[in-house]
Amino acid sequence: MDGSRPFWEKDVTVAVANVHMHYRVPSTRAAPGGRAAGVGRAVRKVVGSQPKVLVRALAGVSLAAYRGESIGIIGTNGSGKSTLLRVIAGLERPSRGEVVAETSPVLLGVNAALVPDLSGEQNVRLGCLAMGLSPERTEEVLPDVVDLAGIGDAVYLPMRTYSSGMGARLRFAIAAAANPRILLIDEALSTGDAAFKERSERRMDELRANAGTVFIVNHAAQVIEEMCTRAIWLDRGRVVLDGPAEETARRYRLWAWKVSKGEQDAADTLLKETIAESSPSSVKFAATAQRGSPVRHARRH
Ligand SMILES: Nc1ncnc2c1ncn2[C@@H]1O[C@H](COP(=O)(O)OP(=O)(O)OP(=O)(O)O)[C@@H](O)[C@H]1O
Q1: pTM here?
Q2: Which atom of ligand 1 is nearest to the CA of 25?
Q3: H/E stretch holding 41
Q4: Would residue 187 be called left, alpha or beta, if left means φ above 0 and alpha means ψ between -120 and 50 degrees?
Q5: Beta carbons within 8 Å of 38's beta carbon, 6+ residues apart
Q6: Which stretches of 134-287 are DSSP H helices?
C-alpha cells in the first residue's frame, strides 16, 4: 500500500482509525484461588455480584471506505463484525480510536426496531419516518418499498407472523428507501430467496452508483463474493485480510474448511501467513476529527 498517499475528502465516506472496543462483562467462571478466594466467591454469591472479565471485541481496526464500494465483512462468530458496524453507525463509542463518516450511516440490523404487532405496511411507514423521510415522501416511496420487499399480501399482516426471511426482506427494503449514502447491512440478506437476492443486489448497485458505500456483514463467503467489491476478514477483532472480495472470500473459505475438518494447526498457520502477507491499513487523522464532520486530513499509510 502506498506509504504516504493522502486520500481526499471527495473519495472517502468512512474512515476507521485504530479502533478498539472493549467490554467488561460479568463472568460466572470460578476464579482459581485458595480459601480467601472461596470466601470471596461465597460473598459474591450472597450479594449477587460477579467478577468482570475483559472482552476485546475489536483490537485495532483501521480502514478507509470509498465511494462506490460495497464492502463485505466476514469472520466467525464473535470475531467483531457486528461491533464494527455498530461503531461505524455511531451506536457505540470505541474504547480507543476514531471513526469519521461523511454522512450519517444507516444501520440495517437483523433486530432493527420494528413493531411486531403492526403490519408490514405500517412498519414501512414507521421505518421511513424514523429515518427522517417526510410523511409525503413516505407515501411516495411506499409502493417501491413494498415492491422491493416482495412479500405479497403478507405486507398487510402483523410482522410477528413473518418468517425471519420475510422480516429481513422488509427491513432491507425500508433501509434502502432512505437512499442512504452509507448503508450498513448486518446479515439481513442471507435469508432471502433467489428472486429477492437479485432485486436486492440491483438495489444495492443503485445505491453504490449513487456514490454511496455499502457495508455487508455475512458469515457466508459466497454472499460476500457475489455482492461485494471488497471484503474484510476479521478474526478476534483484528483485520486478517482486506482486499478484493473474491480473494478474501477464497482465503476465508479455505481457513473455515480447515477448521471444520479439525485441522486447527493448518488453519492457524494459514491465518498467520495471511496476516503476515497482507499490508495492514493504518488510518490517521492529522487534525481532531469528529463523527459527522467531513474527512479532511486523514491519511492511509
Ligand atoms: N454489548 C456487548 N457486551 C459485551 N460483550 C459484547 C457486546 N457486544 C459484543 N460483545 C462481544 O464482543 C465479541 C464480538 O461480538 P460481535 O457480535 O461483534 O461478533 P460477530 O462477529 O458479529 O459475531 P456473530 O457472527 O456471532 O454475529 C464477542 O465476544 C461478543 O461476545
Answers
A1: 0.79
A2: 4
A3: helix 35-47
A4: left
A5: none
A6: 135-149, 164-177, 194-209, 221-227, 245-260, 264-277
Q: Is the ipTM of this complex over 0.95?
A: yes
Task: Please name the residues in contact with 121: beta carbons below 8 A apart, sequence gap of 6 or more.
Answer: 142, 146, 155, 156
Centre of ligand 1 from the C-alpha of residue 82, in Å: 7
What are the two backbone dihedrals, phi and then psi, of residue 15, each rounded to the nearest 5 degrees? -125, 130
Pocket of ligand 1 (CB under 6 A): 23, 25, 55, 57, 75, 77-83, 219
Q: Which amino acid is at 123?
A: N
| 29 Cα–ligand 1 center, Å | 19
pLDDT at 296: 38
223: CB partners within 8 A, 6+ apart: 72, 189, 190, 216
Tell me how far apart the alpha carbons of residues 91 and 77 are, in angstroms, rounded to a whole number: 20
The pLDDT averaged over each successive group of 10 residues in the chain (301 residues) is 44 91 85 61 66 91 92 93 93 93 78 82 89 89 90 94 86 82 75 72 76 84 87 96 95 94 94 87 60 43 38
Beta bridge partners of 283: 300
User: Residue 67 is placed in which grid cell?
Assistant: 465511494
Q: Would you state the pLDDT for residue 191?
A: 60
- Binning the chain into helix, strand and coil, the percentages to the nearest 5 are 40, 25, 35
CA–centroid distance, residue 237 to ligand 1 (Å): 9
